[in-house]
Design brief:
The complex is a heterodimer of chains A (117) and B (113). Chain A is 0% helix and 48% strand. By secondary structure, chain A is an all-beta fold. In chain A, the strands form 2 sheets. In chain A, strands 2, 4, 5, 6, 9, 10 and 11 form a 7-stranded mixed β-sheet that branches. In chain A, strands 1-3-8-7 form a 4-stranded antiparallel β-sheet, with no helix packed on it. In chain A, strand 4 and strand 5 form a beta hairpin. Chain B has 113 residues and is mainly beta. Chains A and B meet through strand 5 and strand 10 of A and strand 5, strand 9 and strand 10 of B.
Chain lengths: 117, 113
């Protein structure tokens, strides 16, 4: 059971470039989410999805797009990278909050360390 | 405002001592999570607390939840060096017709031999 798989692990971008961070899970979780982690801060929610075809914005959505065409995949797109997007990005999945199985909590990917120069 | 506050943010302690990390949150929730993160690593789930009065223990760590006080504690008993890490609490809060996970800033714990 692979859990949550994120790629790439490291990436350096130039300002203005675009890229997609990949996230896939094999646990049949309805809920998937993207966070960024900056030094000295907790994680901040970028976007989330409660199921295929449904996405919504979190605390810090500007500069990022997401889509959820399948239950398994939830890619995060940076349309025009900026130095302020230098961060570590984590994808997480879980059963739907409020559902019976939520006591398993959230499962996190290994993270993507992104630097924008 | 949805806010989760942890304290202390930094804790240096000797092996064998006991200490408690506190997690306060600003709005009603009955789901709280504790995670551990080692430097450069991902987040590892420690505890999932789903109801008022919930108490869970794993080894030298014990977590509790008081939903009325909007407070969770993570208690460390007879600390050992291997417990050095950053500990986060996170709360599921209902906002914009959905649940969102709001995080504390983390408590960096250093345990000296």
């Amino acid at each position: 059971n692979a859990g949550v798989t994120q790629t790439p692990k490291f990436q350096v971008l130039k300002t203005g470039q675009s890229m997609t961070l990949q996230c896939a899970q094999d646990m049949n979780h309805e809920y998937m989410s993207w966070y960024r982690q900056d030094p000295g801060m907790g994680l901040r929610l970028i976007h989330y999805s409660v199921g295929a075809g449904i996405t919504d914005q979190g605390e810090v959505p500007n500069g990022y797009n997401v889509s959820r065409s399948t239950t398994e995949d939830f890619p995060l797109r940076l349309l025009s990278a900026a130095p302020s997007q230098t961060s570590v990005y984590f994808c997480a999945s879980s059963y739907r909050p409020g559902a019976e199985k939520i006591d398993y909590g959230y499962t996190f990917g290994s993270g993507t360390r992104l630097t924008v120069v | 405002e949805l806010k989760v506050e942890q304290n202390p943010l930094f804790l240096s302690m000797q092996e064998g001592k006991n200490y408690t990390i506190y997690c306060n949150y600003s709005t009603t929730s009955d789901r709280l999570y504790w995670y551990r993160q080692d430097p450069g690593k991902s987040l590892e789930s420690l505890f999932v607390l789903l109801s008022n009065g919930a108490v869970k223990q794993e080894g030298r760590l014990m977590a509790s939840l008081d939903t009325k006080a909007r407070l969770s504690t993570l208690h460390i008993t007879a600390a050992v060096h291997d417990l050095s890490a950053t500990y986060f609490c996170a709360v599921d809060m209902y906002r914009d017709s959905n649940y969102q996970l709001i995080w504390g800033a983390g408590t960096k714990l250093i345990i000296k031999p």
